[in-house]
Amino acid sequence: MTVEYEELVENNDSEEGLKKLDLLIASGSDLDVVMFPSAAEYSKRVGLDLLAPLDDLLSAEGIKVTDEYTVDPSLNGKVYALPDTYENYFVLLNKEMLDKAGLPVPTNWTWDDFYDYSRKLTSGEGANKIYGTYFHSWPMYMQLGLLNQSKDNNLVNNGVLKVDSPEVRKSLEIRNQTENVDKSAIPYSETISQKLAYRSVYFAKKAAMIVTGNWMINEAGGSDEFPATFVSAFAPMPANSQGEPSGVSPANGNFMGVLKRSVNQQAAYDFIRWYTTKGEQWSNVYSAWKKQDVDQFISGLKTKLKSPDMIDTDSLTYVMKNSPTTPLNLPPAYQSELEEAYVKEAEKFVLGQQDMETTVSKASAALQKIVDANK
Question: Residue 110 forms beta bridges with which residues?
Fold first, then answer.
């Protein structure tokens, strides 16, 4: 098999790359395999009927996609791409602060446990105060009790609102409990007024733990901008309550598909099967392949880091092996409108300007209008 690789852009700008890819497809270029940087972009091309279903090829190989990959890429009951790189979420912790507080690295825990840790990791006053945690300004940080659900983890799922729900109330509680009641999280007012950035907050030791994604694994080992001066540990995403699994988070990453018009369907499929499995293991990439050798990945990763000793290997290994992901539950195309309307009401609650039930009621009404306008 001969593979010809075409780099779409030189600066890794995914948006520009997608524009060029769409132009190449529209112009009839002789392409077989395509890669998309997110589930949403993959879904969009499925909607345009550009990708070939892979189900028959998988069956011929005797492969069940959910046995091979952590992420189930099925859309409308069919598989149109294979998961490549893997992006999920966890809690990143300053292990020196944990040790000082006499706290073990969490494994199975709930948000109530998270509150307790955050209180115990908070110390000092005024400008010298160290907070237990920090929530960034992204909309997802107003949805933490929703994102960790194994299904229906969007504000709107199949046209149905999930704002008036225990999961959204839990999301609001997480922010209120830590910021306003316990005062163990950096206040939202400071986050937005000072335009705080999660990397600088964490590496400057202003907060002991942050909810973040696995792109921070490399950065925990130090960078030119943020040298690693302490050991970072890793913990699964907390569950909403006892009895629910820890570590559940939305999954994303790159997806590789075969164009429907390709005349090399089998060869293209064979290539993406290799690339998304042994190919990515050879490249030492955090992949969605279930058979990836986690120990080998971490060992290889450490050879590339500036400060490999600043990564707590045991806890990273645990998180990588014990973080179940949700099935692909793609948000609607108007997700940004929904999040903007939801955050507008949620931040009023976090800032103490309205109570929870008023927040849920107003957010529900605002989001329903958006759903109705997009029918």
Answer: 239
Question: Phi, psi at residue 97, to the nearest 5°?
Answer: -70, -35
The answer to whether residues 132 and 124 touch, using CB atoms and an 8 Å cutoff, is: no
pTM above 0.90, yes or no: no
May I ask the CATH class of domain 89-249+328-373?
alpha beta
What CA–CA distance (Å, rounded) separates 359 from 346?
6
Neighbours of 357 (CB within 10 A): 11
pLDDT tens by residue, 132-178:
999 999 999 999 999 999 999 999 998 999 999 999 999 999 999 99
Q: Which residue carries 């709107």 as its tokens?
A: 156
Alpha carbon distance 92, 220 (integer Å): 9
Evaluate whether 14-86+252-292 and 89-249+328-373 have a shared fold. yes
> In which element (H, E) is residue 185 found?
none
For residues 280 and 268, what is the distance between their CA atoms, to the nearest angstrom?
16
Q: 356-373 vs 335-350: helix axis angle to the nearest 10?
A: 170
Q: What are the start-end ranges of the H helices in the chain?
A: 14-26, 39-47, 55-61, 65-68, 95-101, 111-120, 144-147, 166-176, 188-193, 198-203, 216-220, 265-274, 280-283, 294-302, 313-321, 335-350, 356-373
* Token pair for 355: 């109570």
Instruction: Write the pLDDT tens digit of every residue in 102-123.
Output: 999 999 999 999 999 999 999 9
Q: Tell me the one-letter amino acid at 209.
A: M
At the second CATH level, the architecture of 14-86+252-292 is: 3-Layer(aba) Sandwich (3.40)
Tally of CA atoms within 13 A in the half-sphere of 32 that contains its CB:
15
- Quote the CA–CA distance of 330 and 157 in Å, as a whole number: 8
Domain boundaries, given as residue ranges, for the chain: 14-86+252-292, 89-249+328-373
